Amino acid sequence: MSEPLEYVRNYYGVPAVIGRRVTVDGKPGIITEEMGAYIGVNFDGTKATAVMPCHPTWKVEYLEMGTLPKLTRGQKQWMEYSKVRDCFENFREFLRYKQQQRTGA
User: Fold this and answer.
1) 20-40 pLDDT, tens per residue?
2) What is the Cβ-side half-sphere exposure of residue 101, based on CA atoms within 13 angstroms?
3) In the sheet where 51-54 sits, what is the strand order?
4) Cα–Cα distance measured from residue 52 to residue 69, given in angstroms and rounded to the nearest whole number
5) Which of 15, 37, 69, 86 has the maximum number of C-beta atoms within 10 A of its C-beta?
């Protein structure tokens, strides 16, 4: 299994890594996840769960390493749900499923 953003770094020749500060079209943010061939950027001043896919070379300036935004428990659950939402009717059903997994019910 490859490490996050390895494809983006190799294909586009950019220093994209999780936690690197960037500006995209003049807007500052931080790379928080891999989104296929795109970088997932959380722009400054937005919720930690608001991650936007950005093309790795379109008006992107790569800066120093930064600190990832802290997610609340609910935000972590929502991020996990957003990756598997097609498997559930809604967020509440996902939370019930996770609870059953924890309790072994």
Assistant:
1) 999 999 999 999 999 999 999
2) 6
3) 51-54, 38-43, 27-35, 20-24, 60-65
4) 14
5) 69
